[in-house]
C-alpha cells in the first residue's frame, strides 16, 4: 500500500466511520504494515527471574523503529487510543466467505486476544506516541479481516 489513507479505504465502511470519528483534533497516527502480533506472557527462569519472551521484544523493537520514522510529536496528559488490527483472510476460505470477511461480516474471533494485541502496540509506543501507556484513559481495539494486514494506532489528547 502506498499510504495509510489507501489502506483505510480497503477497510469495511463501518470501520472507516469509527476511524474518522476519533477525536480529530490533535490525532497522532502510527501505522505498522505487517500481520498483527500480540504481547507474550512474561516467562520465569528456574531461579524465579522474570523476562520478556524474545519474540515479544523483537516485535516491540520493530514497532518502535517504524513509529519513530512516522511520529513527530508526543501526546501529553490523558490520551484516547484506537488500535485497528487487520488480519489476513485465510487462503483456505471460499470466495463467498472471504468476501463476507472483507466486508466486515465475519470477524477474527481467534487468537491472538484483542487485549494482548493492544498491549503490545501500546507498550511499544511508550516514549514515542506518549510518555507512558498509563496516560491512556480511553481505548478500543478492533480486530477485522482484510486484504492488506496491518495495525493502525490512533492516539488523541482528551
Amino acid at each position: 500500500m502506498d499510504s495509510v489513507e489507501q489502506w483505510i479505504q480497503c477497510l469495511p465502511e463501518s470501520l472507516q466511520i469509527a476511524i474518522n470519528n476519533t477525536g480529530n483534533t490533535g490525532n497522532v497516527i502510527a501505522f505498522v504494515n505487517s500481520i498483527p502480533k500480540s504481547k507474550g506472557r512474561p516467562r520465569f527462569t528456574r531461579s524465579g527471574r522474570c523476562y520478556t519472551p524474545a519474540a515479544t521484544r523483537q516485535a516491540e523493537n520493530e514497532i518502535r523503529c517504524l513509529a519513530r520514522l512516522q511520529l513527530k510529536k508526543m501526546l501529553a496528559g490523558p490520551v484516547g487510543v484506537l488500535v485497528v488490527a487487520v488480519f489476513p483472510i485465510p487462503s483456505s476460505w471460499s470466495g463467498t466467505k472471504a468476501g463476507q470477511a472483507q466486508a466486515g461480516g465475519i470477524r477474527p474471533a481467534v487468537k491472538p486476544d484483542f487485549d494482548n494485541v493492544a498491549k503490545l502496540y501500546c507498550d511499544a509506543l511508550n516514549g514515542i506516541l506518549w510518555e507512558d501507556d498509563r496516560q491512556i484513559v480511553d481505548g478500543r481495539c478492533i480486530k477485522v479481516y482484510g486484504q492488506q494486514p496491518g495495525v493502525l494506532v490512533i492516539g488523541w489528547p482528551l
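Strands lie at 28-32, 43-44, 50-51, 79-88, 136-146, 150-157. The mean pLDDT is 88.
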